[in-house]
Design brief:
single chain, three-stranded mixed beta sheet, 10 strands, about 15% strand
């Protein structure tokens, strides 16, 4: 089942927002992690500096242990480890004395290095190491800080994001549904207006809310299409009325003539005249029917496409020969002037009807004793036919 546009817009909007919020949450989580880690490393660096200063002031190992135990033995927040270059433990804070033996520290570099490790009794810890000058040579000093507080702050942030994120998505879904409904309301109104438009009720038009947006331009286009359809329907009705009027006269003549001929016995001559009149009107009906059929086929686009060419000169000679009897009745002469081999693309039957109509009009409007000139000539890439 295909979902409605409104539902698809709402789901797309909600899905996109969910992905964006998730990406934003991951980015904030990462930035917060890096920021808290940088702050922890800064605090460790300060403690390493103080530890190195104390180590450097000791005269011998005994004094070193005594001074470190006095100052760093039971620190509230940090734990400390001091090793010789042979990895001998010279000092360990009281809280990690049992775990220090399991975490040997190699001789550190002059620069401070940081790492995160799990320490028994403390959990995950951030460890900073540095080389320092002691009473008997270089020593490795390390400062440890439990990450419990660090992780607690990070967990609080994650809980906030997990709680607020879905709430924002739900609000966005409701807002997206409202916006989609509001944005597509013109479509519902256009649908209702279109349902009211019928062949009998053609005055209704779609309401244009904003002609500058997509729906407004669609409404304008549909209104223009409806106007064109209305004009086409009016033309069809007018054409039907005109055709009925044209057909009514010959039918009436045929019927009247036949009724008069059948009313009383007539002479053979009278019957011949009546039959001739009926034949003439039937010919007229045939001509009208052919014209109506041709117009109907052209309006429906059913006429065959033009695939060949027609010798317009030969066609004109045939049309002149067919129409000459009518011209002779009015004492008219027809002169044809045509170059040889003049061909044009077109349907011969329809071109012949055009020529016959032109010649018939010329005979009607040329005074008796006059002349009709038919001229066919080439004009660059065109052919010009003139009836004068």
């Amino acid at each position: 089942m295909r979902l409605s546009i409104r539902t698809r817009l709402m789901l797309w909007y909600a899905g996109s927002l969910t992905v964006l919020i998730a990406m934003f949450g991951l980015l904030i989580d990462r930035l917060m992690y890096d920021r808290l880690l940088a702050r922890t490393d800064f605090e460790i660096a300060e403690e390493l500096e103080e530890l190195a200063l104390e180590v450097g002031l000791a005269a011998d190992r005994a004094e070193l242990r005594r001074q470190l135990e006095l100052r760093f033995g039971n620190h509230q927040s940090y734990d400390f480890v001091v090793q010789s270059k042979n990895e001998e433990l010279l000092f360990v804070s009281q809280r990690i004395q049992n775990a220090a033996a399991a975490m040997p520290l190699t001789l550190a570099d002059d620069d401070v290095s940081y790492s995160t490790s799990s320490v028994a009794g403390l959990g995950s810890c951030r460890i900073g190491r540095q080389r320092s000058r002691g009473p008997e040579g270089p020593l490795s000093i390390a400062v440890l800080i439990p990450l419990e507080r660090f992780l607690t702050e990070l967990q609080d942030l994650r809980k906030l994001l997990i709680t607020v994120g879905p709430l924002i998505v739900l609000i966005a879904i409701g807002g997206g549904f409202w916006l989609a409904r509001r944005a597509l309301r013109p479509v519902d109104l256009m649908t209702a207006a279109a349902d009211k438009i019928t062949a009998e009720q053609r005055s209704e038009r779609l309401q244009v809310f904003n002609p500058n947006d997509e729906l407004g331009r669609l409404a304008v286009t549909l209104n223009q299409m409806i106007d064109r359809l209305q004009r086409a329907l009016n033309d069809t009705r007018q054409f039907t009325a005109d055709a009925a009027h044209e057909l009514r006269t010959p039918l009436a003549v045929i019927r009247t003539t036949a009724e008069i001929a059948l009313r009383h016995p007539r002479t053979t001559r009278h019957y011949e005249e009546s039959l001739q009149s009926i034949a003439d009107e039937a010919e007229r009906l045939t001509s009208l029917s052919n014209q109506l059929l041709m117009l109907a086929r052209e309006d429906a686009g059913l006429n065959e496409s033009i695939n060949g060419t027609t010798d317009i000169g030969e066609l004109a000679r045939e049309a002149v020969a067919d129409i000459e009897p009518l011209a002779e009745q009015k004492d008219l002469s027809i002169q044809l002037i045509c170059e040889e081999g003049v061909s044009i693309p077109g349907d011969p039957d329809r071109l012949r009807r055009v020529l016959i109509n032109l010649l018939d009009n010329a005979i009607k409007y040329t005074p008796a004793g006059g002349r009709i000139d038919v001229t066919i000539s080439r004009k660059l890439d065109k052919v010009e036919l003139t009836v004068a």
